[in-house]
Amino acid sequence: ALDGGMLYPRESQTREIKELNGLWSFRADFSRSRNLGFEKAWFKSPLAQTGPVIDMPVPASFNDITQEPRLRDFIGWVWYEREVVVPQRWLSDGSLRIVLRVGSAHYYSVVWVNGQQVTEHEGGHLPFEADISRVVRASPTVQCRITIAVNNTLTLETLPPGTIQYMNDPSKYPAGYFVQNTNFDFFNYAGIHRPVLLYTTPNVYIDDITVVTGFADNIGVINYQTSVLGSPNPTVKVTLTDKDGQCVASSNGVAGTLKIVNVNLWWPYLMHENPGYLYSLEVHVTAESSGKRYEDFYTLPVGVRTVQVTKTQFLINNKPFYFHGVNKHEDSDVRGKGLDWPLIVKDFNLLKWLGANSFRTSHYPYAEEILQMCDRHGIVVIDECPGVGIKDIRSFGNASLAHHLVVMEELVRRDKNHPSVVMWSVANEPAAEMPPADFYFKSVITHTKSLDQTRPVTFITDSNYARDKGAPYVDVICVNSYFSWYHDPGHLEVIPIQLNTQFENWYGKYQKPIIQSEYGADVVPGLHTDPPMMFTEEYQKIVLENYHSVFDQKRKEYVIGELIWNFADFMTAQTVTRVVGNKKGVFSRQRQPKAGAFILRERYWRLANETG
Ligand code: GCB
């Protein structure tokens, strides 16, 4: 079981936050062994004392910040460090916990405070934290030094998996070099990608909250469960307020049920005139512990909605929901995968402009800040774990599987309370035809369902329908296909028959609803030809139109969604098939529309009127 509930840090009457974003000192360990930092214990003294440092912004990927090719393509440990002043009242008040939290760092992290290791974490897309109260209080000064070493190496047992190759034939390579091979199509950006912060809680504190919602007629129901640590018998009070701040329900006890008369349900964007309705669930804990009185407050936004899958439909609040949306990446110029508010808000404005009601977090969990936006704006999310590129048979082994199960635990723990999240995706395009895929996906999907009984589970396949060994376990079939692109390049006329066959095969075998979870074509913005040729604006447009005509027939039967690949162009490794990245975006990497964006916009708004 995981340690702690990992509630998103929020300020309250009893909790404070201090952000540590901004400039950190930075050094990549270019030593031959790639291990000099550990050999010389760089965490023990200020980083600038053990060698040269450069400025590195946090959050951001480090890769595109400098002009150094060797840093862009670096594989191994990089070291981040900064000092922080811990407020005197935090230090002197022994009834407070001081917690250091990292939103995410890719891929493996070790964290020290004042030279003492406080935690380590595997996985590039989920948060981790450490109670550092004791370490900072032991220090004679209010200054404290935080050191984070991050390693981006991917192996057969990481998620996503990868392999390292050493090119060392001296007749070919004067210096020799390492390559990080992966089976996924995006650049392996690395560094501290999400906010780092300190926050406080009282010693008796709300560690976790889980809500499960439902409704009958106009009565909404919220079943809540809290976990309070630091006291064996806390008093828990829960109050629910609506958007206007009116208290609409309350309850006592660590677990309970709240009933809301005339409930405002949480609805997706364009399905209702008031999408993304959120209540505020305030948890108030009081307790006596060793003669002292403790009090903690935490407020969780809660949307009341249900999700259900039938043979042919995806139901939200008992109404058929059709996914007309996109696949995204956390990716942009300069900052790579670093969280960036202007970019986040721009992307939501573009989603709304498109009339998109949903996206998939291809191919890893996105920042919590993004899911909170989805909750508020009614953008429906298929929440994908970093199980992308599981292609090598050795990545189906026991160690890989065990880690995959833990990642699903971390993901469900983090995202279980988001109304926008309606389905988990445990993988993208694995080698699902290999014999071990059966046991592997059965295990991961069963485990995910045991962690969350309220949401359907899927993975995204590009395997043959007759040989896919994971498909029997999913609730919704999600299929990627690139007709007239990777197959029959240039032959737009093949799309209708091939897509039709794809749908009939999958539905015929499984009688489960289907989402077209990827389709698309690369466009170098501004390239035009007639007749349409690959990589032009015209070609993408016709690929889309041909796919859409088949979707329109099949959505009346069992196709429940279409997600374009991709929302925007994004960076990849350098290969012969990519021209400075993948160009299948309907927006450029700078978020300007290509011709395909206008096709989608017209379609999505029409679909919203027909299906919403
Ligand atoms: C896929 C992958 C996606 C790629 C895309 C492409 O099937 O899931 O990660 O970027 O195809 O453009 O090749």
UniProtKB/TrEMBL annotation:
Domain Glycosyl hydrolases family 2 sugar binding: 17-202
Short name of one Pfam family: Glyco_hydro_2_C
Domain Glycoside hydrolase family 2 catalytic stretches: 307-608
Enzyme nomenclature, EC number: 3.2.1.31
Subcellular location field: Lysosome
Keywords, comma-separated and alphabetical: Glycoprotein, Glycosidase, Hydrolase, Lysosome, Signal
SUPFAM superfamilies noted in UniProt: (Trans)glycosidases, beta-Galactosidase/glucuronidase domain, Galactose-binding domain-like
An example Gene Ontology CC term for this record: lysosome
Example GO molecular function: beta-glucuronidase activity
Gene Ontology BP terms: carbohydrate metabolic process; glucuronoside catabolic process
Function: Plays an important role in the degradation of dermatan and keratan sulfates.
Family indicated by similarity: Belongs to the glycosyl hydrolase 2 family.
Subunit structure, as described in the record: Homotetramer.
Protein name in the entry: Beta-glucuronidase
Organism this protein belongs to: Albula goreensis
Upper classification of the organism: Eukaryota, Metazoa, Chordata, Craniata, Vertebrata
